Amino acid sequence: MIEIKNLSKKFGSSFGLMNINLTLEKEESVIITGQNGAGKTTLVRSILGEQIPTCGDIRIAGIDPFKERANVLKHIGFVPQLPPPIKLSVKELINYASVLSGAEEKKISDICQKLELDVKEHFKKIFFKLSGGMKQKLLIAIALAKEPDIFIFDEPTANLDMQGRENFYKLMRSLHGGRLLVFISHRLEEIKDLINRKIEMDFGKVVKDEKFV
Ligand SMILES: Nc1ncnc2c1ncn2[C@@H]1O[C@H](COP(=O)(O)OP(=O)(O)O)[C@@H](O)[C@H]1O
Ligand SMILES: [Mg+2]
């Protein structure tokens, strides 16, 4: 599903990513860990076609994210580390996401409900004025409702309280197979039972890559 070859990204004279080679397959459920500044978000942004690599190649379902970004994004449900400052109301955002991804609005609301976020109660509020946890729940619901074959979550539970995390993991466990799940997370203990591969990054490199059965 995701093929990365000799990928490097330089910021000025320093490396954000240094010669990454990775193949991530369907049915894999991967945690990418590593200290702050290890290059995790830079890797994700490269996969999403948000930044041009200094060198190397990426293919998502055979597609080059830098040449065909819109096509690549059809395959991916992504929840960012920091919610973007969207100026739409909650209702408008749900409508917009639904038009863009083809997911039913009701489905987005239903998933919010499972995350204990009653969106209807907040329909009129501007997205960026919601609490961090509420934003994250709504973005998770939008990504899940799209039913893509690749999910990428960058620190998805960072703003969630314990109950919120529990609900999120419950939802993750209920996803059926045939998908690639990628969690960027420091919370290995929390998602141990969800994953079958652990990739550790440091200084822009992959320093460990373990698969479990
Ligand atoms: N847009 C940018 N401009 C300059 N340096 C950046 C930029 N994005 C990331 N970096 C640098 O690249 C390195 C990796 O950052 P990042 O991918 O955000 O790490 P992580 O997500 O693992 O904490 C860091 O040294 C960071 O300062
Ligand atoms: Mg990061």
Please characterize this protein's 3D structure.
This protein has 213 residues and is α/β, with parallel strands linked by helices. It has a single domain, classed as P-loop containing nucleotide triphosphate hydrolases (Rossmann fold, 3-Layer(aba) Sandwich), CATH 3.40.50. It has helices at 40-47, 69-75, 90-101, 105-114, 119-122, 132-145, 162-174, 188-191; strands at residues 2-11, 14-24, 29-33, 55-60, 76-79, 150-154, 180-184, 197-202, 205-211. The strands form 2 sheets. Strands 5-6-7-3-8-9 form a 6-stranded mixed β-sheet, with helices on both faces. It has a 3-stranded antiparallel β-sheet with strand order 2-1-4, with helices on one face. Strand 1 (2-11) and strand 2 form a beta hairpin. The two termini are 19 Å apart. 37% of the residues are buried. The structure holds adenosine-5'-diphosphate and magnesium ion (MG). Magnesium ion binds at residues 40-41, 81.
